[in-house]
Amino acid sequence: MGDSDPRAIFGHVAEELGKRKVAFLFIREVEEEDSLLSEIRGLFAGPVIANDEMEAADGARLIEAGAADAVAFGRDYIATPDLAERIAAGGAPNPQHKPTFYPDTGEALSVGYTDYPTMAEAPLSV
Ligand SMILES: Cc1cc2nc3c(=O)[nH]c(=O)nc-3n(C[C@H](O)[C@H](O)[C@H](O)COP(=O)(O)O)c2cc1C
């Protein structure tokens, strides 16, 4: 989602949603120089969850810097059912296989969301 003045519009929305006691904000924003994450966290009264193309180190850095309260992982979690355990163990996520994410072929797939291996089922790659 874009806007001609993202700082003004998203800052205003964050502040107003906080006044209305919305439980949390989930900010999907690729990390770039013009990131509004920290500002939005300062304006919103509740927890802010950062998302988009995050890796474990990004999440740790953002939380350490106070830019976010938590980090969400999307596609890595689809591909890695035990992502939290792998991060804790210093392991890498399984490679993502996009055809199994959101196929629009209309045909039944033999492999999909629930077939990615856990650490116990595949060697841990570090
Ligand atoms: C197959 C697929 C389905 C998704 N479905 C939704 C959805 O229903 N609602 C939503 O808010 N985001 C949805 N997303 C977006 C993810 O929540 C997330 O914002 C996005 O994948 C970026 O995070 P990532 O880089 O960690 O994957 C979907 C993403 C994928 C790949």
Explain how this protein is built.
The chain is of the alpha/beta class. The chain has a single domain, classed as 3-Layer(aba) Sandwich (Rossmann fold), CATH 3.40.50. It contains 5 helices and 3 strands. Helix 1 runs parallel beside helix 2. The chain is globular. The protein starts with 5 loop residues before the first helix and ends in a 37-residue tail after the last helix. It binds flavin mononucleotide (FMN). The site of flavin mononucleotide (FMN) has 11 residues, from helix 4.
A few lines on this structure:
Helices cover 33% and strands 9% of the residues. With 126 residues, the chain is of the alpha/beta class.
Keywords:
alpha/beta; Rossmann fold; three-stranded parallel sheet; 5 helices; 3 strands; binds flavin mononucleotide
The strand order across the widest sheet is: 1-2-3
How many helices? The count is 5
What binds here, in terms of ligands, is: flavin mononucleotide
CATH architecture descriptor name: 3-Layer(aba) Sandwich
Low-confidence stretches: none
Q: Count structural domains.
A: 1
SSE series: HEHEHEHH
Query: What is the CATH topology classification name?
Result: Rossmann fold
Q: Percent range for helical residues?
A: 25-40%
CATH hierarchy class name: Alpha Beta
Give the helix/strand class: alpha/beta
Which descriptor suits the 3D outline?
globular
Largest sheet, in brief, is:
3 strands, parallel
How far apart lie the N and C ends? 35 Å
Based on CA atoms alone, the radius of gyration comes out at 18 Å
User: If you average the pLDDT, what whole number results?
Assistant: 89
